Amino acid sequence: MINILRKVLFSTFIAIALFLLVLNAYLYLNQSAMLFYPATTLDATPTDWGMSYESVEFELENKTKISGWYLPYPQAEKTVLFFHGNGGNISHRGDSLYIFHQLKLNVLIIDYPGYGKSSGKPSEKGLYQSANAAWHYLITNKKVRPKNIIVFGRSLGGAVAVDLASRVKAGAVILESTFSSVQDMVNRLFPLISKFIYLRYSFDSFSKINKITAPILIIHSSDDEVIPFVLGEKLYSAVLADKTFLKIEGGHNDGFMKSISPYMNALSHFTQSL
């Protein structure tokens, strides 16, 4: 009887181990496709939205070409460095670009490797390198002073914004609908097996955000169906700099439009107080 029980337990252990091995192999091979959803076709330009712009292109150290748009506002002092989420490309951010235009701010928005007209393939390192190159483009080519740069990141772009702002001296940081880390996301999505999943990407904003000294505004919807509201709260709890939290309503991709009045008021107050 004891030998039978041992055989059953051993067989169960082997089955679980094989399941986790196969699961990790599958996730390892597919994590990139599960995290990044790039679109390579630009469906519109700022001209279609009534705004002037300049096409921007620069290279990373590995010769990957990064493309983007620079949208000037007459006599604007502040410039928003915009990092978008994991899907689409810069041509799908017209509403946000118009909002920053209404706030009388310059904007530089870029596409990550593999997105839009940018070459290469997306990766965590590639996104960070793109952000760093965009920062230096503003300082070198546009002669923008670091204290006049507002680093903005939405969703996955929030992790890109945090990484950059933890290494440079930006004037301010705005994070919208973002998370504390990929590990925390996996813990929420797969609570029973999350500790047994090997992650290729970390995007660990929680461990970096306390290094940011610039004022930070964090915006998150309590109705967010993609990134749990509690992860936005967790990220906010780690901020040591001057901080503000705005709770909005609506879905992950449209919350800022459904809460446009408090959203605009918060952005206006925050940017004008810098």
What features would you describe in this structure?
- The protein has about 270 residues and is α/β, with parallel strands linked by helices.
- The protein folds into 2 domains: about 1-35; about 40-270, Rossmann fold (3-Layer(aba) Sandwich).
- About 40% of the residues lie in helices and about 20% in strands.
- The chain is built from 8 helices and 10 strands.
- The protein has helices at about 1-35, 95-100, 125-140, 155-165, 180-190, 230-235, 255-260, 260-270, and strands at about 35-40, 55-60, 65-70, 80-85, 85-90, 105-110, 150-155, 170-175, 215-220, 245-250.
- The protein has an 8-stranded mixed sheet, with helices on both faces. A two-stranded parallel ribbon has the order 1-5.
- A hairpin with a 5-residue loop joins strand 2 and strand 3.
- Helix 3 (about 125-140) crosses helix 4.
- It is globular and about 85 Å long.
Question: What is this structure's SSE topology?
Answer:
Blueprint: H1 2-35, E1 37-38, E2 54-59, E3 65-71, E4 79-83, E5 87-88, H2 94-102, E6 106-110, H3 124-140, E7 149-154, H4 156-165, E8 172-176, H5 182-189, E9 216-221, H6 229-237, E10 243-248, H7 255-258, H8 260-272
Parallel strand pairs: 1-5, 4-6, 4-7, 7-8, 8-9, 9-10
Antiparallel strand pairs: 2-3, 3-6
Helix pairs in contact: 3-4
Q: What is the CATH homologous superfamily assignment of the largest domain?
A: Alpha/Beta hydrolase fold, catalytic domain
CATH class of the largest domain: Alpha Beta
**pLDDT < 50 runs, ≥5 residues:** none
Q: What is the number of strand segments?
A: 10
Write the CATH architecture name of the largest domain.
3-Layer(aba) Sandwich
> Cα-atom Rg, whole angstroms?
21 Å
The end-to-end distance, rounded to whole angstroms, is: 74 Å
Q: What overall form do the CA principal axes indicate?
A: globular
What is the count of structural domains? 2
Order of helices and strands: HEEEEEHEHEHEHEHEHH
Query: What's the story with the biggest beta sheet?
Result: 8 strands, mixed
| Widest sheet, order of strands | 2-3-6-4-7-8-9-10
